[in-house]
Amino acid sequence: MQVLILAGTTEAMALARLLQEHPTIVATVSLAGRTKKPAPTGLPQRSGGFGGVDGLVSYLHEQGIRAIVDATHPFANQISTNAAIAAATTGIPLVTLSRPAWQPQSGDHWRIVPDLYAAAEALRSLGQRVLITTGRQELAPFANVPEKHYVIRTIEPPDKPPELPYVRFLYQRGPFDRMAEATLLETYGIEVLVTKNSGGEATRSKLDAARERGIPVVMVQRPPRPRGITIHENVSTTLDWLEHLAP
Ligand code: NAP
What we know:
Blueprint: E1 2-6, H1 10-19, E2 26-31, E3 45-47, H2 52-63, E4 65-70, H3 77-90, E5 94-97, E6 110-113, H4 116-122, E7 129-132, E8 149-154, E9 167-171, H5 178-187, E10 192-196, H6 205-213, E11 217-220, E12 231-232, H7 235-245
Parallel strand pairs: 1-2, 1-4, 2-3, 4-5, 5-12, 6-11, 7-8, 7-10, 8-9, 10-11
Helix pairs in contact: 1-7, 2-3, 5-6
NADP nicotinamide-adenine-dinucleotide phosphate (NAP) is lined by residues 6-9, 30-32, 34, 49-52, 55-56, 72-73, 75-79, 82, 135, 196.
């Protein structure tokens, strides 16, 4: 059975590893092509957009795809919407594989905001030294609040760095441990952390370090998922689902 994995997350990688040399499931991993050196998955890989819903539908037909796993990042809203429409159009079964969102714990000071523009606005009434960990693609909103001192941590350099008078870029790939995160907050005198609610273990220790230091967190909420989609929170559920579908 031919399966398409829409990837770009650690969950997608984990599923790909489980499907290597699977006797009945042949999966292709699809990446958006944003990362210059993506890690190999051990499965056939394709890279780049499909060309919207129509392109995705054509691809599904051409490749004889029988199931789709949307294992894209919770904030990758466009591809998830396209996948939901393409699945409804073609009748191909679709599940979303997505780690649970982080939940606030006792001692957390979260300011929950709907998007990155609201995150930048929220900074006006918070501390001066800000750590941004929201990814390299949507940094423009922070140019609206240029008076802050920013530390921006991304995996790869942003294509269009925002015009900010006080900014330092750090290029680091997780996972990060709590001690390292505490050291980072200490070193730069960070007073506010900005993050998307990505969930997962690899980057959660920044929240632990912020809680320990009483640092407020501007938490960008996940966009809503397309309606009616089945969501799996772990890879083994998705593997069971695929094996159930496979002839
Ligand atoms: P997006 O806004 O939902 O997608 C924009 C367009 O990129 C899509 O319409 C599609 O182009 C193409 N695309 C996205 N994911 C694709 C995939 N896995 N395979 C083929 N084409 C894909 O997505 P995004 O937020 O730019 O994220 C891009 C990738 O980075 C995703 O794979 C996501 O899992 C990963 N990522 C995103 C974030 C985040 O915060 N957004 C964080 C970590 C990782 P066409 O319409 O031409 O098909």
